[in-house]
Amino acid sequence: MNNSLGKVLVVGAGLAGSEAAMYLAKRDIKVILVENKTIQRNPSQKINDFAELVCTNSLKSMEPSSGHGLLKYEMKALGSIVLESGYEAKVPAGDALAVDRENFSRIITKKLKDHKNIEVVEAEAQDPLAMMKEYGCDQVIVATGPLTTEKLSDWIVANIGKEDFYFYDAIAPVVDADTLDYSKLYFKDRHKEADESADYLNAPMNEEQYYAFIEELRNADKVPAQSFEEYKFFEACLPVDLMAERGVDTPRFSCMKPIGLKMEDGTAPFAVVQLRKENLLGSAFNLVGFQTRLTYKEQLRVFRTIPGFEKASFPHLGSVHRNSFLNSRKLLNFDLSSKEYPCLSFAGQITGVEGYTESASMGLYVAAQVYRKMQGKASIPFPIETGIGALINYIMTAPKPVPSNINFGLLPTIALNKEQRKNPKRKKIKKQLAAEKARAVFDELVESDKELFW
After folding, report:
1. Are 241 and 222 in contact, with CB atoms under 8 Å apart?
2. Which residues of the chain form CATH 3.50.50.60?
3. What is the DSSP string of 152-179?
4. Tens digit of pLDDT for each residue in 262-294?
5. Positions of CATH 2.40.30.260 in the chain
6. How far is residue 251's CA from residue 271's CA, in Å, rounded to a whole number?
7. Do 334 and 392 form a contact (C-beta atoms < 8 A)?
């Protein structure tokens, strides 16, 4: 390949930045990868390695007919380092791709640092355009995520524009496996037979225990929002305590739903707290869906009321943090380059997507567009029928910047025939048809420019 296409500055070595850097480096473009975390971590970061998973350790469903399965299909065609490393660091989680998060980040860091076309610079990017010139780059991709540093956020606000530049996110706690009382817990994956080899551990609650727990959640002390702000949470990742405030039964129909989790005696619990392995050893568990605003002291008190958690120890407690998102519709072009500065592009969660695979796929999308630009070619649209194309269309047309996961509601509606509409499984059929259509359209896109996909 021709290596005279130039040089690209990638700011941020999270999921999107890692994807963008590796995509371009594989195509013999020199990459300057700037990462700030070794100098100063943000409130959610715990390790120095790249692509840190700060919330859950799950990269979501591998099921082909799911939204996340569709994204994985497309990311694989784009040569995703996140997917490749995810499978290398995989831990059991049923149909989901969950990883040992430290091993996952370690693998990605090594691959990036070992690549001949990538130079890692430990520095804080305060002015990406000035840094682009400093390193002799032709393009810059800002992939600093929702926890962009204050100085870079200030630069973005001053030079790109401020449009409700924040949301709040919450992180679930992790519990030490050796501190749980297994006599009160049982292993079982949803809708499968109970088995100690199951990927999920469950803490069942009866009606009295559940409502007492919800009362504790509602009354516990919470961490307040920052001054002059109000909490604005992404609806698909609400803190469990906020769910409890919305309605006493809300968690029981969400993260604590007992459906498909009958106990050994064949009875169904009133509610369930599900635990997913945090690592291959199973030495720690993540509390599924238990993002929280509770103070650390209150988390210890309240979560130890869960059956089996009476003496629980928590290596990591939950937390809330402020996220920054651009109003992409007003500020960016469809290739996610800045309308004000064409040499500047944004990728990842900062553009208005929510979730690991969503963020990573945006890194791949932007890198592909930058690659075409450096070849003197026009940007290439990803059809709305595809997963990535649907996400791009959403963030570029949503009247208000509300972060979104991948879901089939973003794709064009699939019409069912009369027989399919009468089928009680019509919702599943509709998803399967949408996924098949998306893969077919994406395959056509691959054929249109094979150099972008390999």
Report:
1. yes
2. 7-165+324-452
3. HHHHHHHHT--SS--EEEEE--EEEGGG
4. 998 999 999 999 999 877 667 889 999 898 989
5. 170-322
6. 9
7. yes
Helix (H) or strand (E) holding 319: strand 319-323
Q: For the chain, first and last CA: distance in Å?
A: 14
**At residue 318, what is the residue type?**
G
190-212 core/surface letters (b: 16 or more CB in 10 A; e: else): beeeeeeebbbbbbbbeeebbbe
Per-residue model confidence (pLDDT) at position 2: 45
Q: Burial, 136: exposed, middle or buried (Cβ in 10 Å; 0-12, 13-18, 19+)?
A: exposed
The Cα-based distances of 83 to 77, 267, 278, 351 in angstroms read 11, 38, 18, 21
Other beta carbons within 10 Å of 229: 11
Tell me the three-class secondary structure of 261-277, residue by residue: CCCCCCCCCCEEEEEEE
The pair of three-digit structure tokens given for residue 76, joined into one six-digit string: 């694989």
- Contacting residues for 434 by C-beta, under 8 A, at least 6 apart: 408, 411, 414
Residues 6+ apart with CB under 8 A from 425: none
| Per-residue b or e along 380-415, where b marks 16 or more CB atoms closer than 10 Å to that residue's CB | eebbbbbbbbbbbbbbbebeebbbbbbbbebbeebe
Q: Token digits for 90? A: 């995989």
> Could you count the other beta carbons within 10 Å of the beta carbon of residue 304?
16
- Compute the distance between CA of residue 260 and CA of residue 184 in angstroms, rounded to an integer: 18
pTM of the model: 0.72
CA angle 38, 353, 343 (to 5 degrees): 70
Region 170-322: CATH code: 2.40.30.260
- Hey, what are 221's tokens? 């002390």
Tens of pLDDT, residue by residue over 35-63, are 988 888 776 778 889 999 887 889 999 99
Residue 323: helix, strand or coil by DSSP? strand
- Tokens encoding 298: 């209150």
CATH superfamily of 7-165+324-452: FAD/NAD(P)-binding domain (3.50.50.60)
Rg of the chain over Cα atoms, rounded to whole angstroms, equals 22
Per-residue tokens: 92: 């059991």
Instruction: Look up tokens 């629980």; give the residue.
Output: 312
Q: Write the pLDDT tens digit of every residue in 65-84.
A: 899 999 999 999 999 999 99
Give DSSP secondary structure letters for 382-405: PPTTSHHHHHHHHHHH-SS---B-
